[in-house]
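Model: Ready when you are.
Researcher: Fold this.
Model:
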Amino acid sequence: MSSIGLLFILALYVSILFYIAYWAEKRSHSKWTNNPYIYSFSLAVYCTAWTYYGSIGLAANSGLSYLPIYVGPIIIIPTWMIILKRIIRISRVNKISSIADFISLRYGNSRFLGALVTLICIFGIVPYIALQLKSISDTFHIVTKTQSNSNIFNDTTTYVCLALALFASYYGTRYVDASEKRRGIVTAVAIESILKLVFFLIIGIYVTYFVYDGFGDIYTKAAILENFEQKNSIGGLSESINWFFLCVLSMFAIFLLPRQFHTAIIENNKETHIRTAIWLFPLYLLLFNIFVFPIAWGGNILFEGQGLNSDTYSLLIPQFFNNSTLTVLVFLGGFSAAISMIVVSSIALATMLSNNLLIPYGFIGSLENSLQEKNSKRILNSRKIGIFLLILLAYAIYKIFILDYTLVSIGLVSFVIIAQLAPSFFGALFWKRGSKNGAVTGIILGFTICCYTLLAPYAIGITKSTSLFIQEGPWGIGLLRPFQLFGLNYLDPIPHAVFWSLLFNLMSYAAISVSFKGNYRERNYAEMFVDIDKYITNHENAFVWKGTAYISDIQKVLQRFLGEERTKRALTIFNLKYNIDKNITTADARFIKFAENLLTGHIGTASAKILISSVIKEDKISLPEVLRILEESKENIIINKKLTDTSNELKKISQQLKNANQELINKDIQKDEFLDTVTHELRTPITAIRAASEILHDDEDIPEELKKRFLQNIISESDRLNRLIDKILDLEKFETGKQKLYLSKNNISKTIKNTIESVKQLIKNKNIEVEFHQAQKEIKAFYDEERIVQVIHNLLSNAIKFCPEKEGEITITIVENKDVIEVQIHNNGKGIKEEDFEAIFDKFYQSRNQNVKKPIGSGLGLAICKQIIEHHKGKIWAKKTKTEGATFIFTLPNYNTTETTLP
């Protein structure tokens, strides 16, 4: 492909990334940009051009040696639920914006330590950025079949650097508060992570199944190549130890690399996103490594003896078969892997450079007396300039120094440098005795050993076997040979440097921390870091400070960075949180910590401390006093927690009592209505009987025909009265357990059919159509027939009552299940409100949704039905229907139930 054509594709691709970032920033609260999958895929910024190209080169030359860099993270990732969650909580409550801020804050807000961590990160990561630029340049020339040009204006990488610097400076410095979430950058990185994986899988599938005939074919053909068996085995004890140290190195890298800290910690919106990340990210790494071996050894087979760069096999293989489209896709995947690392790393490093070097050691004095707008502009400009300078520095290193080294070699050197932060970083999380002096000594000593055993030989050139320094050691002292320090000769250069540098680092950190006590501020933050779960809700309470401070002075400092409006809002929140009178003029320890946190995101932890300290007068506190205050703070937090739990429990009990009281009121109302209805029902037949009796008594000459009619009324009303009393007695017997059921095996279809016959006249009077298609089918069930007739009769009577005056329909259905039979009775009248589905079976309940003005019935029918069905070990309920009307369902034991008599 021509250079112009590929440049056009790259310009279009970068433009799409710009648009994705712009779209995500505008929709920062959308589920499409703020979800656990975007978060998890953004963590794949770990997979750089080293992963995309370098792993193939390492697998082609050294076999399985590429695996430890991925095995380490996969092993340690399950601990994220504990370790990563703790780091996120500490960073969130303290407004931390970088790993330099994190370590600096833990060791007493140390300005020097923050600067030291920043320099270590710049020293380790800028060459790593240069590594990505090298991969972009090399692969561009492979795809276009052109030669690299020493003229920077004719070098494509120059313009790529400028585009990335513009992208990172625009979307990475949109907020003065560096702890703010950058949804645009994160979403763009996540999309790039998906694309680079897809393109890598495509080339893997192409090589494995189109160039070759599967994994077995590649293995068979590669097995005859020289040293195949030796390269593709872990080897003996020494090789296993090498693997171990490489795994440890990558474990540290997944926490300590500035880009990983930024994506995993600073850009985390919810702790729950970790649950997705702990399975999706390892799966991502696994998928990325499935086809490394086939591509590497497929390339070795195709290009045996040609001396080609094995890092670029994924491009050379499709190019060899004239597949230009696939070649460009693979190039875009590698380009994505490189630029995502460059963008995130430059943003993270620029923030550290600004907050931990330029501001605390540079222009912090000028910020004290400037307006908020001017301060914000200077801070943002310092970060933008930092991004440009870092990328330009990486470009210079790429041009001058690392043209002769592979992707893997520079990447591992970068990992070793960053690993020097491990003892102080993990000590900050788990060890309260760790001190600033111990951390500083450990980092400096470890970095010095790293320079001696690794960086110096690389600067000289490890391929120069004639170097006396490498071969014999300085002044000919063999024990000081950089690759065999103190006679340790069975480790490769990288594991060798890891072992000695971390050994000296860890030992000095521990020894000095134990031997020399840190100041009270270090011990204070040690408690707050190690016991973060205790202080997560009220961390200001754990901050120890004594002295004289005025809110108005601190407020003026805050206004110079936050602005007047935001400062007032922050103070209001603080006063509400701790129930503080807004008229109080003096500031306590809680307010000092609160103010420092507000400034930390803008200017870093050390600078925030310097600015706040400039307007307050702090008294010295002894270490025993700090411990006493912290103990009191712990007790207060425990008491507050108990009070909160008690308050919540009281609220819960209060709500339960309120609900119970409301239920009693409702029951009382229902009972009144029931008594009113029953009284009415009893009075009606009694009144009718009395009226007829009085007429018969007072008028002896009443005609015989009329006398018979009155006597018939007396009989029918007596029957009505008797039925009502029977219902009340039935219900009482069921509720007290005195009612017995006499169960036998019966045909439920026949029982229903007979019951329909008993109400046939009522059905005919209302012109209701009854559908019962299973009337002729024999369906056996186990029940007391007399009682079930009572249930069906009641349900049918209700259905008839509530059917519309015209076109009324009643549908009866029987469903046979394994253990029970289910009877459904539906009418097309007015339905039942869903909230009444349970209440209608209460004995004092009467539906208000009836077709007459006044509720009719005693309110006992469904209550008795429920008792009967439940005594049959069945269930009865009302169901919501799609069409109009109401459906009642009850179940009964099927034919297989043992016959017995139930009380």
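Researcher: Now this one.
Model:
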Amino acid sequence: MSLLSGWRAALRIARRDALRSKGRSALVVAMIALPVLGVTAADVTYRSSTPSKAEQLTAQLGSADALFSSAGIGPVEVEQMPNATNWGALDDSPAEPYAAAADADSAPVDVPGTLPEGARYITEQGVPATVTTRHGIITTDIVELRTADPLVRGKVELTKGSYPDGKDQVVATEHFLKSTGLHVGSRTTLRGPEQTYTITGSVELPADLWREALYADPGAVIAPWQAASDRDKKVVPPQVGDMTWLVEGPAGVGVPWSDVLTANKKGVLVLSRQVVLDPPPDSEIPRAAHAGQSFEPIELELSAALVTVIAMAVLEIVLLAGPAFAVGARRSRRQLGLVGTCGGDRSQVRAVVLAGGVVLGGVGATAGVAAGIGLTAAFRPLIESWSGIRFGALDIRPPELLAIAAIGLVTGVLAALAPAIVAGRQSVLESLTGRRGTRRSSRVLPLLGCVALVSGVAIAVLGGTSGDTAMIAGGSVVAELGLLACVPVIVGFLGRLGTRLPLSPRMALRDAARNRGRTAPAVAAVMAAVAGTMAIATYTTSVSAEHDYDYIPMLTPGTVALVLSDASGVDQLPLARAATERNLAVTGARADFGRVWAGSDCSVYFEKENDCGSLDMVKPKGESHRCPLQGAGAKKLAETLSADEHKRLMRSPACTDEYLDMSAFDTGSSKIVVGGAEVLTSYVRLDDPAAAEALAAGTPVLLNSAYAENGEVTLKAVHRYSDQDKKNRKPHPGKAEVTTDRLKVYVAPAKYAATPGIRMIMPQKTADRLGLHTAPYGSLYTVAHTPTDAETQAVSASFTQAGGRFYLQAEHGGAAREDVVLLILALFAGIVTLGAAAITTGLAKADAEADLTTLSAVGAPPRLRRTLSGFQCVVVALTGVLLGTVAGVVPAVALRLVDLSKAMEAMREQPMDSAYTPIVLPWETLGLLAVVVPVTAGLLAALFAGSRLTLTRRAG
């Protein structure tokens, strides 16, 4: 028999066997299709959500040919790169492209005069404005752009209603409508000129679905607003942005590079679709020649994380397919024995098993690709709303999908290789009688597995410290393979754990240990499903923890601040406080605070230089008061520090003051506020009776101990008064007086040095004693949750009614997108683990049908079959999850070591840069996978397992 005809027969046998055993074949196909589906969905989603160059241009230009804009330096000749992002004045140095702006002619640039002859254009210009909403008022952008013009298609799309057709009509983005509680047909009023507009439709920006803005026709907002301001000086004039021109070139010509160069001569920048998609050679780009740059496209490099994930995904496909073919070959051993009795040799027996891999692997790969595309299309709206970008179209790339399917097919065949070899070694008698025989477990394989596990971890860690992507990926795979080699020993150990357990779990554990050849591949399949997810989840959680550490809050979390923006609004402060307490979810007592200053108030007399006073806290000299990461010797010290040592220094009071230099609510450089014990308890969160008693006794509370020396702090005040400050200038004639006072203070523990916006709390009586000026400045509140859009808009409207001289500041915290990613990962891993556990348990159940028949024959109760199936599933799922967690942590740790190396390098260049690179386990994800998923899998297995079995009569 020729090789070709032999394989044809093997494929025919495999196809008929698959059709004969439809249930088992479906399980095998599902096992292969599951990872292929995930990889396909990820590929299509990534390609579709990444805009092409043409789609990026459409988001900027709509259907126009080009975008013309002034360079902002007058009618001065400029040079630009084809994408208009890099430009400079003709005689300017490439290193300082905007230096000519200071000396340029301030005359306006005639942009329409630079357009190609026969071109058509529309203008776009935005202005920030305050408008009314259903809840109150909101500050947003109003863009004057003729949205009904065909040139805007692709840039702004109508989703409901109609385009504006008149001076009193606007359209709103969907996100604006959702935030404000308005809808199509609502009316909104522009505060200031009090112009009212009707919202005629809702629009979306495909490239920015989260944009909040209103769109009106040119001349509908800015011109009437400016006219109202000219008539009434109380109306603040509009602060308009730069105007741009969307241009449609002559038919069939567009806007070529020659037109761009012509416009550059008059100080105009041009973003041309034609030029970007088909750029000229560098020899024709003056900017490239002068700046020594090139416009060649930049090729993206694969990151270490991406390469590692790809390697883990391929290994996952192999491991998920392995147990399917192992059990399938065992179920077909009688058929394989018949092949031997008909004269088939061992190679032909192996070919039949491998042909099963080809048939079922091909079907699984094809089904996985098709299902991946289908699921991506079905969940496309959800993905778009989550990412904030509308897909141009589903970007399906056949070569990539064929490669994914080929990987699924090839790995399916490779997974069938080991069962094929085992089947070829069996004698015909064993195959026909179904006897498995007994053999001792290999002692060499676990030893090799331990060596591979240790070596893989070492290689991955070494790759992490050296930044070698290949070593990380290779070491992670070797470590996981080593762990796989240890699975049979681990499974065998499970049998010893069930001695004192009830019957069903004891039988499940002993069955797993007795049938290691069946249990080990099932555990490996679940382990593979969990390992990749745990790697990503661990890395993502660690990065999220790093971002949380690096995030500098503007306020103490869980608080809001009502702050006076104009000193003349002090009398209306009670109204603003009442509005805040009425509209926000305030908890606890209000904490009022005030400003303190010396001389004339700099918030009022700031127009002239040195026309107001100052108040500063003097930091004592000495090593304990100076941050060693600043100044001379900082870099030398940084070279000797570990990441933990650097973290401790960064969190010390002396260094905290260096990077927390922003004032949360404009308390000045001194960060001194006037307040009482309420500020300590509600904002500082310092619940110390001694500190409250100190304030009551007139002793300031110092939050940053670096400014204290022997329990005292030094205040330097410059009592300088402006001639315009008639009230205070008269009793303080002459030159400015400089005073230095030493104050006894209560020094708070070091951790309170990081309190946002406050360095010291001064009692009113202390300020009066020092001759300082004070005034109420606002209030601090503890809130149950961060103010919602509706609450913020309601408060803003109330502030306007109270005089509008206040603002509300809230702490929104860092970005929470990582939490959403972790939730998605946990759900995905749970589904994959449930599927893998269910499929492998189903295969194990089919393989153990004889044992279940024996149970029924000896009178086992019907529920035993259900509970046994449930506990078998729990054993497989739980063991696989725990081993997968160990396997997944290895690449995550290695990747974090890469991040640590980069962070340490950056820290040694800039000692004040954080080098904190934590490794944090995703305990929520681990809890879901280790508890919820195995229990759910066990319950489902018990629910769907048949409790009764029809006894079969033994032949003969």
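Researcher: Key takeaway?
Model: The longest helix spans residues 862-909.
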